[in-house]
Design brief:
Blueprint (H helix, E strand, L loop, with lengths): L1 E5 L3 E6 L4 H13 L2 E5 L5 H12 L3 E4 L5 E5 L12 E2 L4 H11 L5 E5 L10 H9 L3 E4 L8 E4 L4 E6 L6 H10 L5 E6 L6 H13 L4 E3 L3 E4 L11 E3 L4 H14 E8 L10 H8 L3 E5 L4 E5 L7 E3 L7 H10 L3 E5 L11 H11 L4 E4 L2 E5 L9 E3 L4 H13 L3 E5 L11 H7 L3 E4 L2
Parallel strand pairs: 2-15, 3-14, 6-7, 10-11, 18-19, 22-23
Antiparallel strand pairs: 1-23, 1-24, 3-5, 4-5, 7-9, 8-9, 11-13, 12-13, 15-17, 16-17, 19-21, 20-21
Helix pairs in contact: 1-2, 1-3, 1-6, 2-3, 3-5, 5-6, 7-9, 7-11, 9-10, 9-11
Length: 431
Amino acid sequence: MNVEISQSGVRGAAQAPPSKSYTHRAILAAGYADGARVTDPLVSADTRATMRAVEAYGGSVDRSDDDSVLVIDGFGGRPSVPADVIDCANSGTTMRLVTATGALADGITVLTGDESLRSRPQGPLLDAVEQLGGRAESTRGNGQAPLVVKGPVDGDTVSIPGDVSSQYITALLMAGAVTDEGIDVDLETELKSAPYVQITLEVLEAFGVEAVETDDGFRVDGGQSYEPEGGEYAVPGDFSSMSYLLAAGALAADDELLVRGAQPSAQGDSAIVDILERMGADIEWDRDEGVITTRQSSLSGIEVGVEDTPDLLPTIAVLGAVADGTTTITDCEHVRFKETDRVSAMAEELTKMGASVEEEQDTLTIHGGETDLTGAEVDGRADHRIVMSLAVAGLVADGTTTIAGGEHVDVSFPNFFDVLYDIGADVSRDD
């Protein structure tokens, strides 16, 4: 689906979607439990993949008519051997989290995904399963899906790098709680995307599971049960998705734009508020009400590291293209291993729109002072975050921007273009 965005202003109020990160973890946690209700979930392509995985391991997921509640009948910490291959589609979170689940089953689990997912690194997690006494391998021997996992593992100590994906640690902690011995995760390198592990610890605590940070990494004791208080867990709003709305307000709000659903949580991507403030945005966050107000502002370039907030890189790149001066995004090599290489993708697509961009392995530099964005035909790279960030750029580019692959917003923000239209953006689709 092609989407056209013409230069236009935004105003009014928008509701942030529920958090994808919390929804994934809550669905799987309910699977590890005897069952639970997950309220206000994000129902998207990625989270549906996690629902299918829970069902493959012996649970069931019932959705309400309006998708506001998931009633999950779990497998009580003892996953069955799946009757078929688990297709994780485009969801790297699903694949990593439920690979560790497969290591608990008394038999063989096979996991695969689409072409993009089959190119993403899984080797450190496979090695961790082997350290626990399970079998785990890539069918092509390259550390990428399709994956074959055989259990059951009982727990132990694993050593794993922390600078490839924090999802490996999340997977091991969630599975480790229901092993006999528990799992100690020793980090070989500095942990990147650390706030995502804090999200995991927060969700585990809500489900009655204790996991702790240690001097060397993390530890979760075995023999625990997943039991959320009252049998229910409510998903908070998503700051990763919220970043596009906040950026739209800072760049194109005719008066002001209110974004609702911004309750404080462990999400590292709430750093977008601080980043916008540092760039000079007129932005206010009422934390008690969960409302952020933004107004069109003159922005200035800054230097910002994304070691803990990789999903913000596309948003920051667009802000940098409009800001005066230079914006330098550092510590971003791991952002190359997402649905696409987001560093190169943003460099190339913003260049098509007239931006002055320099790309290095671990750094993206945008010279906003040398940039006048103009409408162009750009490629969303089948990546929801690339699509949404380019849509924000289209709001302030001279003329019309045509984005290929607009349907991929279904991964994390299915009604993104409806929301954009409702707040005043000039949006049209060819569907």
